[in-house]
Amino acid sequence: MGEMLQVRGLTKKFGGFTAVNEVAFDLDEGEILGLIGPNGSGKSTTFNLIAGALPPTAGTITLEGRDITGLVPTRVCHKGVARTYQIPRPFRKLTILENVALAAYFGADGSISREEAWRRAEDALDLTQLPVDGRARVDGLGAAGLKKLELARALATQPRLLLADESLGGLDEKEMDQAADMLSHIREQRGITIIWVEHIMGVLMRVVDRCIVLDHGEIIAAGLPHEVAHDPKVVEVYLGTDAEAVQTQVGGQASAETVGA
Ligand SMILES: Nc1ncnc2c1ncn2[C@@H]1O[C@H](COP(=O)(O)OP(=O)(O)OP(=O)(O)O)[C@@H](O)[C@H]1O
Question: What ipTM goes with this model?
Answer without folding.
Answer: 0.96
